[in-house]
Amino acid sequence: MKVSLEIEKKKNIIFAVIYLIMIAASYFAGAKWWVVLLFGLVLYPLIMLKLKLPEKLDLLWTVVLYIGGAALSVFSIQYLLLDAEDFPKTTDFIYIINFVLALAVFLIIHAVCNNVSLTCTIASIFLVAFAHVDYFVYEFRGNEFTYADLKSAGTGLSVVTKYSFSISQKNVYVVMALILYVLLARRIKIDIESTIGTRIISVMLAVICGLFVALNSVDLNTETWEKKGTYRNGYLLNFVLGIRDSFISEPDDYSAGAVKKLEKNYTEADSSKSESDVKDPTIIVIMNESFSDLSVLGNLETNQPVTPFMDSLRQNTIRGYALSSVYGAKTPNSEWEYMTGNSMAFLPEGSVVYQQYIDDQPTSIVSTLKNNGYTCVGMHPYYSTGWSRNKVYPKLGFDETHFMDDFDETNILREYITDQELYDGIIDRYENRKNNEKLYIMGITMQNHGGYGTRYDNFDQEVYKLGDSYTDGNQYLSLIHESDKAFKNLITYFQNVDDPVEIVFFGDHQPGLYSEFIKLINGKGTSGLSEDEIEKLYTVPFYIWTNYETEAKTVDITSLNYLSTMTLERANIDLPAYNQFLADMMEVVPAINSRGYYSKTAGGFLHIDEATGEEAEWIKNYNILQYNSMFDEKNKSSLFFPYIK
Predict the structure, then answer these.
(1) For FRET with 291, which of 32, 212, 608, 633 sits at 20 to 30 Å CA-CA?
(2) Beta strand residue intervals within 551-621, DSSP E
(3) How would you class 140 by CB atoms within 10 Å of its CB: exposed for 0-12, middle for 13-18, buried for 19 or more?
(4) 515-522 vs 471-495: helix crossing angle, rounded to 10
(5) Is the pLDDT of residue 141 over 70?
(6) Cα 149 from Cα 392, distance rounded (Å)
(7) What is the pLDDT of residue 165?
(8) Mean pLDDT, residues 302-331
(9) 425, 407 in Cβ contact below 8 A?
């Protein structure tokens, strides 16, 4: 091995240019001066370095450079994207999987160019640049760059000029490390004979890396909320999981002909299920964050009734329990199931529809009501970027959207805007409607969001479980008590208006409480449960109330995907073909979610693949129609999924 420094004018100029650029970037980013100095002290000799290695060490140095480059790239990505609190949350094994993914990138590029220094340069720059794309995307919208964003790249590019770019210390440090690695790789001259054999070996090794990743990520879910994907799965792996979950296979027996066959049973609109003579009521839908009735799990005794008003609500009301497809998190899936009538039963576990599967304009209760002349308003007293609602709501067809900035942010419980503040906003919008304006309002609350372990000065906990208990459970029960009070105020107001009004209320999912608290209620906690016991964890209450005469009903079990059909029926809106199908299906399959379905024949819950006879036929046809609406753009049924006419 021969090592020497060749100080040349050209190399001095290169050093000066690179170093001055990094000094300027460091100044604007507020980087530490000693890091900039250290970078310069390492950069100068690397630029001047001339290194001659024995040919017999070429393979060894290739391995060292590729392994080192992959490891540095993964560390740089995680360091860049995560703050100090989240960075340690990534497990060692997750780092290993991400390292193997990065190594596969090096191997694939090597198979193409068969040049070590060029491979190191391209692979490391590509990986770090990819991380920077995610960094800036997150800065813009509050959630990460995913494979689904590639499918809407045109939209993203059209608005990119509206954003301002700013760099941090981390950006500078990561680029510094990248520069030093690339320079080192280019100073080590490795000559590998260009043969088909070496390329084949690279491809084979890349395939082995891919198999390792696939086998060790089967049970991992794509995470799309804020930066959970990066610290739980590692950014590279989470991106790949998003690719995996984006390709949905056709259902068995799927074809355009199968959809046409189903069309023969339905018409464009059906008013046969109308329940009253009332026309075009104001429709208000409240999806209440983490709202549930924990007594469905077992024995729950409290110092006072948790929801006394809702317990008393009977007149002009359909009430009961519905299956959600999520537990403890991933609110937008419940929102999507309600609005579209589709089900998470046919999508990958852990996926989030708003961020993975909405590319165009999905048919929903929003489009149905717009076709009936309604103004559609979406309200959510939190960040507009949460779960990408700022992108999804316009696609759904909402005419207006109101997010955190449109509410009084001083009206909070704990850290979130109250239910009452949202309801006041709904009432204000109702009072300011135009003459003869038909109004649909979808309100998503935030007050009861998870994180129940901390005590707050602005929240007096009035309700608690009798006997053994836990702090998080009592705080949750007290929050639900506050929701009951706010809902009473909302109903009281609309009882006294002259125009017809329908209000739909349901919880999105049960809260993520400590398993020990759940164990105090059901005796088991959240593990070791039967299918029926598991479904209880996915059960939430719902209410459909009108201020005009309608039949009072109690529904023992349904699911969120059916509630919009029930909403249209109660509002005396002619059912579109897809809702006609759902109305017929719920007579045979009364409830279905991501866990399974309620079987009338079995008298309990079953997995979907256990369905037989008429139940299996309805579920199969449901899957066919959902696939047609979401993934078959070429043959999408204009009868079932017309969107806005």
Answers:
(1) 608
(2) 553-559, 575-576, 597-599, 604-606
(3) middle
(4) 70
(5) no
(6) 13
(7) 64
(8) 94
(9) yes
